[in-house]
Amino acid sequence: MITEALQHCHGIGPVRLHQLQDAGVRTWHDAVDHPDRLPKSLRQTVVEECERCLEAQRTGDLEYLVQTLHPQDRWRILHEYFDRASWFDIETTGLEVDSLISVIVCWHRGQLHTFVQGENLDDFLDLLEDVDLLVSFNGSAFDVPRVADGFRIPEMPCPHLDLRWICYWHGLEGGLKQICEDIEIQRPADLRNTDGEEAVWLWEQWQSRRDRQARAKLIRYCAADVMLMRPVANSILERAPMSAEQIWDGLPEELNSSETPLTRVDAPEDSTDSADRHRRRRELLAGKFGPAGPSRLRTLRRRKP
User: Fold this and answer.
1) What Cα–Cα distance (Å) separates residue 47 from each residue in 28, 41, 231?
2) Full 3-state SS string of 123-141
3) Range of 291's domain?
4) Domain for residue 257, yes or no?
5) Cβ of 95: how many Cβ atoms within 10 Å?
6) Which of 201, 235, 250, 260 has the most other CB atoms within 10 Å of its CB?
7) Residues 116 and 232 grouped into a single domain
8) d(CA 167, CA 137)
């Protein structure tokens, strides 16, 4: 399946691809074994590129394949290496461009891993060192840049695929919620109306009131997004569908509490108060850890040879 990816080769577009297929060149092996079936003007470059791809496949160099294959063919990488994929999502402390990461959830090797700001967020870097292929939804535009900036690393230490664009090339557009509705996958009832704005509010409730219900729901919301990516990918790749039990196995449960159910009520707030509140929150988060805080640790990590 993955060896049929040829559109990244120089000079091969949709029309040329069909011509090559008609001539019996459908895979990297075909190009290498039968170079005479290739146009002379493309023969050397196509054969050399197919040899590099075969070597990357042989050695498991997923980084080369992710960086090289045409966007329309990257689904083939996920199809080939689905069992080696780790799935992740993040939440942030606000909707501003300089907001910090509040929570990271990653499904890795059959287990859900949770990382929370002020508790164990830096441990996510250690997990990344064990990741073969990282998958997100819209991560190339949001999650990955936030991780790189938040941890002060120049780039991710593992190859990354954005499921959003794999969905796009398969005719599924919109956000993860919309796509799940389109293919009839439902979230747990308590999370169906939760969105990114409420996730910010939940974090604020945890920071300001130490509301355990808010913290639990925030993690549960982030984890649900992570766990929904696998059945979406299954649908695109035409793998065996996952039952509801399989999808949600491992999702953190709702926090049992005798307290009043958590309900968001927003009071009117003028822009001056809002800006001042966000400024105080950033100052609090920046200074609460002292000289041994995450930013210091990240700097030391980056300096290691």
Assistant:
1) 8, 12, 36
2) HHHHHHCCCCEEEECCCCC
3) 271-303
4) no
5) 11
6) 235
7) yes
8) 9
Over the stretch 1-57, which tens digit does the pLDDT of each residue have? 899 999 999 999 999 999 999 999 999 999 999 999 999 999 999 999 999 999 999
Looking at residue 183, which CATH number applies to its domain?
3.30.420.10
Query: How many domains does the chain contain in total?
Result: 3
Burial category of 61 from C-beta neighbours within 10 Å (exposed 0-12, middle 13-18, buried 19 and up): middle
Decide if 258 is inside a domain. Answer: no
Q: Which residues are CB-neighbours of 263 under 8 A, at least 6 positions away?
A: none
pLDDT of residue 305: 42
Residues 232 and 292 grouped into a single domain = no
CATH of the domain at 43: 1.10.150
Distances (CA, A) of 17 to 26, 111, 296: 8, 40, 51
Could you give phi then psi for residue 51, rounded to 5 degrees?
-65, -40
The greatest distance separating any two alpha carbons of the chain, rounded to the nearest whole angstrom, comes to 75
Partners of 86 in the β-ladder: 134
Whether residues 100 and 13 share a domain: the answer is no
